[in-house]
Amino acid sequence: MSDLIQPAKADPVVGRLAGNSQIVLIGLLVLLCLAISIGAPQFYSVENVIAILRQCSLVLIVAAGMTMLLIAAEVDLSVGASLAFSGCVAMDVTNKTGNVAMGALAGILFGGAVGLFNGIVVTRLKVNSLIATIATMMILQGGVFLFTREAVQNRHLQRGFTEISTGYIGPIPIPVIIAAAIIILAYVVLRHTTLGRYIYAVGANEKAARLSGLRPERLRLLVFVVTGLLTGLAGLILSSLMNTGQPTAGRGFELTVVAAVILGGTSLTGGRGTLIGTLLGVLVLKVIDNGIIILRWDQNLQMVVPGIVIVVATYLDLVRRTSDAR
Asked: What mean pLDDT is reported for the chain?
């Protein structure tokens, strides 16, 4: 029977493309920008470029943590539900205390608590992260309505709260600056610190990492918590942008994040991935989203595209791993 099961043969051309995913993404990004600008010249306007960067920022913040998780051979599908719940917590605490800093801290810490819960379930109870985080997603999606008791959390008119998302430092929106700082910090951690090397080692070969004296469970727990904190931060920014806490705000967000990360070349099996690739993946998806809007196409396509990307990127990852094995 084992003789009948043979590894898939990798197309050498596809294999080379998969192995140079960042170059391919840069080329794709250039082609998309050119194609969209032909149909909509306003694509290159300052306002539209800022809108794209603002849309990228939320995904990038969470994608930085998701990249680390996938490199460590784990995944978190609860980030969309956690994003919405964290935003509602931030809005609720701000409303009750009248203190923007307290509300912001509460939202971020709630996201971190969700990440801690996921990490404990995965590392201590040994539940597969895919199953564990789907369960957490369902708990949060129901729990947020029990928490808010309504479809939309009350608005807050404090200027400081709305400026978290709408404010600028010079010509650059605050969320873009926050996302850039997180991406740079995560890049430094992954590429230039011992912790980053440990995360790659755990994802590439857990047994070898354990024999080398590492604690895979602790590392994975840490990455879950970091991803949760970043999700809480993104939820805070989103609730500030909408000036409401919407329990349904994160529906489908997790698919966009995962699609961007694996499109950027991060392996679903762990041990491989870069923040530069993730950045390019987010840009490609958000340029497509923006093109759909300004070209006035059916906006339901915005949900279709990440699904297609996940299938294609997963196939390319399989081809790349098959080529490497040979």
From this structure: 88
